[in-house]
Amino acid sequence: MYLSRFNRVLLAFTASLMILACSRSSEASAPAQPATAPKPAPSSPSPAASAPSGGAALSGIPGMDFSALSPAAKRELSTVFTDEFCYCGCPHTLGQCLRSHTGCQHAKRMARLAARRTADGMPATEVILGLSQYYAAFRQPRTKLEVDGRMCMGNADAPVTLVEFSDFECPYCGKARPVLEAFAKKNPEKVRFCNIPFPLPMHANAVPAGQAVLWARDQGKFWEMHDALFEHAEDLSSPVLLSLADQVGLKGAELKKALAAGTYAQELEKLRAMGRAANLRGTPAIFFNGRLYELGLNEEELTHTLEDELEWRANGNAWAAD
After folding, report:
1. Bigger pLDDT: 48 or 201?
2. Of 100, 163, 186, 257, which residue is 20 to 30 A from 144 by alpha carbon distance?
């Protein structure tokens, strides 16, 4: 995504999600870099509160086990624990917080995230930079996204709205679809999952496919058509679109009329404009309450950021007091 070594690593930091990113849209401009999240000022904890150095920094932490890490990963994680502060707001390093404040769930999540990065081979310096950028994102202004309830699943009053911009011909969006839907269905009271079609200019059939799903929405079949389009992403020619309409219980002949008349062309363009305003560079692009999601596209990392978002929201846009 960027040219620097650190940001190439951030692509690995995002695991399958940003690896999954489709070719960048030439219509969007690159977003400004977020500022580094403020950290607590260093303090001078008592010797009893200080974390051990070296590999011992990982042992004896209540409720945490890092024994499965390789020796190299343990060395890097030990450095993270001794050099990085916990973002819960306490004046301690992450290792000190884990030992002194055993009830701090924020520290535990942060430690697990750092451990996953070192397990992937990321050096401590880049893990610390990645943590800084991830937590800084919570303090940045959120993107306001207008969603249509007919294009969402889950509780409309859920504390977290997860919005995905996708292109029906993007293979990476196709891989993201089952992961995101499964995550949303597992957390229906916490997460409202909404999809917004965002056709990319290099995909010839993405625009009519986007119009087709909006048409199906008006017939009460948004998700049925959404899934059918992804399942046939290798061929979304006009005859296939009409066939899919029949397949989901609608009338292909009616869809043909709507496409010919350009009934949904203007609405689709408004959705694309919303994506461009959010500085989308490709698909899939995922937002948690208007915050761009840049972790891995798997249940563990989605759950991690969901728990962080719930804590942040529950404490009035701040982390829980330790």
Report:
1. 201
2. 186
